[in-house]
Amino acid sequence: QSALTQPRSVSGSPGQSVTVSCTGTSSDVGGYNYVSWYQQHPGKAPKVMIYDVTKRPSGVPDRFSGSKSGNTASLTISGLQAEDEADYYCCSYAGSYSLVLFGGGTKLTVL
Amino acid sequence: EVQLVESGGGLVKPGESLRLSCAASGFTFSGYSMNWVRQAPGKGLEWVSSISSSSSFIYYADSVKGRFTISRDNAKNSLYLQMNNLRVEDTAVYYCARVGYGSGSYVHMDVWGKGTTVTVSS
């Protein structure tokens, strides 16, 4: 199964909002409410920012929010800060055969 | 402190084998499903394999099915990945990750190790 589709890069200025999209199919993103978003800084392990489409783990700033419409999930970061500059990956349940599918990743640049 | 520490990576030739380990501490390991996720140099994340808390359910990505075996020893708080017939394209940093408690899928990974590097080259 193909990876989920994410834009290769997005950018924004400090204080602005950006949205990262993640497009799949009805067999993954559209079929289940199991989408997570991971933040990864260079040379570091990924960190979960959103899970189950909209839930935010404790300790993650409420500037990070998730949503889904049809086969596309989105991560929105409001009030951009310099430390938000990182790679972001979406991840979706894809059924009992493919199980877990990642997006190709999006590099967020804070201008 | 909740922690996952991977080990066992290294440089091997195509066709050779390697066994990765992931030592868990700071939580009740036997209560959690676990994943292996890898990242090739300069590339994105790729799910490799998952195992349920009691090893009843095991899953593999097509790219490693038949060559990799995931297992766990709850008495030793350890997760393993036996990798046989390694290929150049298996070169990556391998992460073990804990699945969020009560998660309805293996997609929510709430704790990650720092990773161990596997290089397959002749």
Briefly, what is this?
The complex is a heterodimer of chains A (111) and B (122). Chain A is built from one helix and nine strands; from the N terminus they run βββββββαββ. The model of chain A has no long low-confidence stretch (mean pLDDT 95).
Describe the overall structure.
The complex is a heterodimer of chains A (111) and B (122). Chain A contains one helix and nine strands. By secondary structure, chain A is mostly beta strands. In chain A, the strands form two sheets. In chain A, strands 1, 3, 4, 7, 8 and 9 form a six-stranded mixed β-sheet that branches. Chain A starts with 8 loop residues before the first strand and ends with a strand. The mean pLDDT of chain A is 95. Chain B is mainly β and 122 residues long. Helix content of chain B is 0%, strand content 50%. In chain B, 43% of the residues are buried.
